[in-house]
Amino acid sequence: MKNLSSSATIFASLQWLFFIFPNTIVVPISIGTAFDLPYSEISMILRSSLVFTGIACLLQGLIGHRYPLMEGHSGIMWGLMLNLCVIASSTGTSLQTIGGGIASGLLLAGIVVLILGSLKLISFIQKVFTPMVMSVYLFLLTFQLILIFFKGMLKFTPEGKLDIPVSLFSLGVVLLVCLIKIKGKAVISNFAILIGIVVGWVFYLILFPAEQSTISQSTGFGLHLFPLGTPNLNIGIIAITFLASFINLSNTIASVSTASTMFNDTFSQSRLDRSYLLNGAYSIVSALFGLVPYAPFASSIGFLESTRIFQLRPYLIGGGLMVLLGSVPFLGGLLATLPVTVGNAVLFVAYFQLFGTSLRSIHNHTFNSITIHRLAIPVLVGVCIMNMDADTFNTLPSLIQPLVSNGFIMGVLLSILLEMFVKWEKGKVQMNEVEV
């Protein structure tokens, strides 16, 4: 790969920062709000999130998988934790009890992953997450993220009605980034995401001055262990969190295997094992400080394909800047004024590339009227559940509600079961006989 000039490295590093930051900041705020924490606690979790996300990226880039793949809060675990809060309100279980059960599940999962990783036994996960399961994972991830960012780039009034001016502005940002990416020269096209955020932010300040966020004046950096709840022995919550944590490891498999293909590297089990060990440690850190567990973002592949900048150095600098933002209150507060709709609009475009990655993951497979079910059933059922109201599942036992109502997890589990118990090769043979 061609080395970047100093100026290109600076812009590429800022582009990584503007990719990592919007993917990070909304998660701790939503979790703190869902668990009904006071502002001081939410502020603490937010700053912890910025610092630990930057550190997690640096460690993965330097000693883990060593690819420029964002290490961030897992969408699987984020959705699960929010679903558990909904269940708490419907069953009368206290949020502190739910949070404590989650902490226990994360601690258990982290310890088990560290033990298995140290003994080189965690590779069994790869036998479960076959190439077809990973294809299903990528499709569901694409749909989940696109839905999140599409809804996020639209603005609604307190009455629940669409704010037309701001929403149209977001669509304009989407078009701008798409045009730069498609029509711009290589040098400009590679920085489409950074240009979209900066231009969108500036014009948002000009056009919607009344919508501006205020800069947080929070000072100090105190750490409070288990802010979501003290660990307990709520077996149901622990079991679901533990299961989801192991499904979350599929992020690592998908990201590292796809990155090795992109970088024309031979797939390395050692890279995967090092990344697993870090993920186990991150799970323990997440439990201690009330953070959503971490995982390599498979969506980073879409970002890399969009920017066409594959060097590791800008990614590492971007991670270092995240640590700085979390350590200096004013800087983190300043960047937090980035309009949410603008950030989501730019990320919406960035993740278009992930759909291409999903399609390429099945290019070695051929489907007929029988074998198409191995892809269609888990993907379409998962998408259907994603678009259903969580209250739909209130009649189910409270312990399985967070599992059944999570379209991503259910789709992946369905795919695993179909690959384990259905002989798809036999279906191919039968179909060929019919055609003859």
Describe the 3D structure:
The structure is a single chain. The protein is mostly helical and 436 residues long. It has one domain (6-213, 232-435). The chain is built from 21 helices and two strands. It has helices at residues 6-34, 39-62, 75-91, 95-118, 124-128, 131-153, 164-183, 186-189, 192-207, 235-248, 250-262, 269-289, 300-307, 312-327, 329-335, 340-350, 352-360, 373-386, 401-404, 407-421, 424-435; strands at residues 71-73, 294-296. It has a two-stranded antiparallel sheet with strand order 1-2. The relative contact order is 0.20. The mean pLDDT is 85.
Key terms for this structure?
mainly alpha; 21 helices; 2 strands; 436 residues
Number of helical segments with 4 or more residues: 21
Q: How many domains in all?
A: 1
Question: How far do the termini sit from each other?
Answer: 49 Å
The number of strands is 2
Structural class: mainly alpha
Strand order across the largest sheet? 1-2
Question: Percent helix among the residues?
Answer: over 70%
